[in-house]
From TrEMBL:
Pfam family, one: HhH-GPD
Keywords: 4Fe-4S, DNA damage, DNA repair, DNA-binding, Endonuclease, Glycosidase, Hydrolase, Iron, Iron-sulfur, Lyase, Metal-binding, Nuclease
Function as written in the Swiss-Prot or TrEMBL entry: DNA repair enzyme that has both DNA N-glycosylase activity and AP-lyase activity. The DNA N-glycosylase activity releases various damaged pyrimidines from DNA by cleaving the N-glycosidic bond, leaving an AP (apurinic/apyrimidinic) site. The AP-lyase activity cleaves the phosphodiester bond 3' to the AP site by a beta-elimination, leaving a 3'-terminal unsaturated sugar and a product with a terminal 5'-phosphate.
Keyword Iron-sulfur: yes
Encoding gene, per UniProt annotation: nth
GO biological process: base-excision repair, AP site formation
Signal peptide, first to last residue: none
Binding site for [4Fe-4S] cluster: C188, C195, C198, C204
Protein name: Endonuclease III
Cross-referenced HAMAP family: Nth
Amino acid sequence: MTGTKVRHILDTMADMFPDAHCELNHSNPFELVIAVLLSAQCTDETVNKVTKDLFQKYKRPEDYIAVPLEELEQDIRRIGLFRNKAKHIQKLCHLLIEKYNGEVPHEHAQLVELPGVGRKTANVVVSNAFGVPAIAVDTHVERVSKRLGLAAKDDSVLEVEKKLMRKVPKNEWTETHHRLIFFGRYHCKAQNPACELCPLLDNCREGKQRMKITAGRKTMG
């Protein structure tokens, strides 16, 4: 894909979603880590409903380990995989206290060592909490990147991330990550994407195929 095409995609998404941002509610890096950890296989909307009360009850890592695991599980039970996530949160809080004085580390390499924190979570935290350019590849980013030809269909999540880092200017990594998510969440959905309204249809082989099938059905009908 040429640099001109990439620029066209980035500019179009910027026009469509100029205010794209992290939709997980948080007021500091620690709350963001907890929110992103909870968001695995769960919608941001559900996480925000749970953290509304959670962040009132638990302010610091010490608060999360001061209660029995069962109590924390009950506090997050509306979240998918809540038992595993409760364990991860308590282990993560122990480690933050033991190694980092209760503070969230700024370095990507230190973040990925925390329980329940993978590469995607670390990228979200460094970019949103500490202003370090990063592209976190979630299901929306992966789907949109592959549909628009920014990555190949069989690329792994890491390969998608590396290709986006090569193609997108570094100073645009974080905002591009948010715009790809908004584009995937509100326009190019996994099911029923808005192909007929899409200004980037020319870049999307899957979308063009979908439109052909739709047109064929209308003709037959």
